[in-house]
Write a structure and sequence with these properties.
Strand content: 25-35%
Number of strands: 8
Shape: globular
Distance between the termini: 26 Å
Largest sheet: 8 strands, mixed
Radius of gyration: 15 Å
Length: about 190
Amino acid sequence: MEAPHSSPAAETAPETAGTTVPAPAGAVPEAVTVTLTVTSPEQMQDLGRSLARVLAPGDLVMLTGELGAGKTTLTRGLGEGLGVRGAVTSPTFVIARVHPSLTGGPALVHVDAYRLGGGLDEMEDLDLDVSLPESVVVVEWGDGKVEELADDRLRVLIDRATGDTDDERREVTLVGIGARWAGLRADLA
């Protein structure tokens, strides 16, 4: 059973998963799309650890999915993979948390933009543009709010079955936008 695509961001994801998709005129030159199926929270965390291996300072990761889809679980895996300090938990009420590296790598800046209005103007108080060059910035609910921070970014769309269900399966679509992500499929192999 396929999980319904109920989030607006999921409806705009390229349908040609696993291929390079030319962008519309005036947009970033190309996007690379990889779609994966995750069947448990442990696998979601493992995916985060795998993604951490390909992340570098200056990377912007935007997470989109319904409440309970696994955005924070994925970020927890990213934090483990990056070797950062502190428990990675949802920053819903503090808006942003910085997790410094314990291994000499980039810090993880974890942002929850759910309660923020639209656009980068409201995000400016968080100084993400200052943090981005030396950190990995992960923004939950960032679509339509933080794209201007980086031409190259990784969008992670997490779809899950909605309603009264115990189904743990998630369809995770990684959309690497810009030249930085041209080798995404190979990097995850």
